[in-house]
Design goal:
The protein is mainly β. 0% of the residues lie in helices and 61% in strands. The chain has a single domain (2-129), classed as Methylamine Dehydrogenase, Chain H (7 Propeller), CATH 2.130.10.10. The strands form 4 sheets. Strands 3-4-5-6 form a 4-stranded antiparallel β-sheet, with no helix packed on it. A 4-stranded antiparallel β-sheet has the order 7-8-9-10, with no helix packed on it.
């Protein structure tokens, strides 16, 4: 992964992350990278990987929302809640083909490769629709 100075267009730092980097998210004082080929998320602070977290099979989309980093695991069919204080997965909900996650109107919205969008309550991890 590279950090680019937007004023000059120059690469100012390069950091080696896991296999198959898929998404990058900023939150909780770190950059987070989902590594879809090795089932991990890399946490980068400054120019160093400070933690590699095994989260599942094929992590895809990332979103720093509220107190958690939310990670979709496409192959396992899950939305995962990762606590940035402990760097551990603290909850999950089954979602077939989970791909991307965002927040709006007090809910998490997850696109699924089943041509559906799931609405999930972030507090209870209860799925309101399009969940399996």
């Amino acid at each position: 992964m590279s950090r680019i100075d937007t004023a000059t267009g120059r690469v100012t730092a390069t950091v080696q992350v896991g296999n198959g980097p898929y998404d990058v998210e900023w939150g909780f004082g770190s950059a987070w990278v989902s590594n879809s080929s090795d089932g991990t998320v890399s946490r980068i602070t400054g120019t160093k990987v400070v933690k590699v977290i095994k989260v599942g099979v094929e992590p895809n989309g990332l979103s720093a929302i509220g107190r958690y980093l939310w990670v979709t695991d496409h192959t396992a069919g899950k939305l995962l809640r990762l606590d940035p204080q402990t760097n551990k997965v603290t909850g999950s909900v089954a979602l077939a083909g989970a791909d991307w996650v965002t927040a709006a109107a007090g809910s998490l919205w997850v696109s699924q490769e089943t041509n559906q969008v799931a609405r999930v309550d972030p507090a209870s991890l209860r799925c309101w629709r399009a969940c399996r």
